[in-house]
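Lab notebook, bench 4. Still working through the backlog of constructs that have no structural model yet. Next entry is a single chain of 112 residues. Request: give me the C-alpha cells for it.
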Amino acid sequence: MINQLRIYDVPPHNRDPFLNRFRDHAARIMANYGFRIQAMWTSETNEKLQFIYLLSWDDEAQMRAAWAEFTDDQEWQDIKAATSAAHGEFVLEIDDIVLHPTDFSQAIGSEQ
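Model written out:
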C-alpha cells in the first residue's frame, strides 16, 4: 500500500466554491474510479488557503490509472469548465507527494 498527499493552493476568494465543488462533485466522481480518500483538511492564513487530502492506493499503477480515468471523465471536465467560468481559477498550484512506507513504518499494510 502507498499513500498520496495532495496539497492545493486555492485562491482565498474561491474557498467556498472550491470546497463545494470538491465535496459535491470531485470526491463523488473520484470514488467511481477507486479513489480512497482517507482525510481532508484546510490550512488557512491571511494570505493563503490550502486544501490538503490523503489518498490510499494498492500501488502506483492503480494510482496512475485512476488519475488518468478521472481526468478524462467527461462529467468532471464539464463541471470544471462550468465552475471555472463562473468563479475563475480554482487551483493555483498542486503539490503531489507519493508516500512509500519504510520497512519500519507502523502504517497498516506497509511494504516489508
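Notes after review: The longest strand covers residues 2-10. The chain has a mean pLDDT of 94. Flag for follow-up if needed.
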